[in-house]
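Sat 14:20. Reprocessing the chain from the morning session after the first attempt stalled halfway. Input below, unchanged.
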Amino acid sequence: MWQQNYSPVGGSLALSALVACLPIAVLLYLLGVKRKPAWVAAVSGLSSAIVVALLGYQMPVGQLFGAVTYGAAFGLFPIGWIVFWAIILYRITLETGKFEVLKDSIGNLTDDPRLQALLIAFAFGAFIEGAAGFGTPVAVAAGMLAGLGFSPFYAAGICLLANTAPVAFGSIGIPVITLAGVTGLPLNELSAWVGRICAPVSLFVPAYLIGVMAGWRGLLGVWPAVLGCGAAFAGAQFYVSNFMGPQLTDIVSSLSAIGVLLVLSYVWKPKDSFHFPGEASKPKLEVKKHPPREVFLAWLPYLLLVLFVFVWGEEAIQVGGKSVKAWLNTQSIPVNWPGLHNLIERMPPVVAKPAPYAAVFNFNWLSASGTSCMLAALLTGLLLGLKPDQWKRVFATTVKQLGFSMLTIACVLGLAFLMNYCGATGTLGLVFAGTGVLFPFFSALLGWLGVFLTGSDTSANALFGSLQVVTAGKLGLDPVLMAASNSSGGVMGKMISLQSIAVAAAATGMGAGEEGKLFRFTLRHSVILATVIGLVVVVYSAMSGR
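Finished this time. Tokens:
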């Protein structure tokens, strides 16, 4: 059995840490400085990790190959499985024209730009984040606001600011699911802690958004909507993440916020008016009205998604004397990963005593959230009368859209798992333990940095999740809280990631030269909100007494 060594370079922890961080440095340099495509950076980062594991840590080739393939397999299933079917569902709504109806049903509720921002940028954007994620919400919401008369810059900037609260639970909970897979921590406990960190911030994000957009007086003019929207979203986010799991958190939270705003639109109107500087009047609403049946059919795909995901994780519904969730899990196939399972020994001081490092791939083909998403997509296509040639277009477009994304996910997870199994993550964790009592604050900022440079909370969790756990163990902190802070802090890096800015600029038709202006606009707010997340984590850490 091969034993991990956390100071393999000259017996020095500092020198070993410099070598251990090379794969991450390569990945972030290519993404953040050279602005290479994500798949190029991911492949290069994985290649660097292989060199570091072989030459720096002297990892046997068999275990190295096992770690990379184990990580890549986890990247493709369940992560890639969920992403694929979430995008299929979204493409079905586009192919059938139902997405335009869905957009119009949102746009028809109000002609006040502040309320449109709450409805579309915050609430509806969060809904798309929960259902699809991976850049889709910013593109869709920013395009909608631009179509309603917002200037391209304001449409893009507002949507980037709004796409913070839901990011940790995006795409049917993928970031938290990835975090659980990388760290080996309980999924529901991670979900609960991410919700506890994010919910207090989500409570005031709508107010922050409108304050930035319309100023203090403009915010006061719509305070009932801001308060109701924030309370509904944060309350649902806290409840669902703590008592149901990560999969439906964004969807239920966003629908709650939309519901509150919908009710308010019938019983309350702002007494004042608002328009952007330099504009003579408010943006004019130019959307179609559709019959109730058409609106229902437009929302049907996502109602089915909520239904299937809810049933898949339900404990109360019984099948053959077992809960649905338990029965589905009986069909799972555990695979002791060849060439890796229990062939590596973790050593002190990362663990209390030498212990074999397990590598069991859980092929939960039936109980996976992606399978529930698949059934929702297939039933949606059937009910909406999707023809064979339309199915072909939907699948072909999705495969083309996700090809490089799947490669990126597989390589990033392969890199993360390799660093875990070769001991590089342990090395970095021991170094970060040197921050002592300040680590809970820097824990959130590490997640923020990861998302800023990779553009993905999922990728940041894969890269730094285990590092957070190792460091927490050395400092006597709650490892679940520290891992959750990585994902929670990461959400505030989304608005300044180059990928998000590029998507927002493209969706609104901004000139290439304006991307720098957009970055400067969001940077200050990103730092402020990331600091707030860090302080929330510090408070929770102090309360936990660990």
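Residues 293 and 299 are 10 Å apart (CA to CA).
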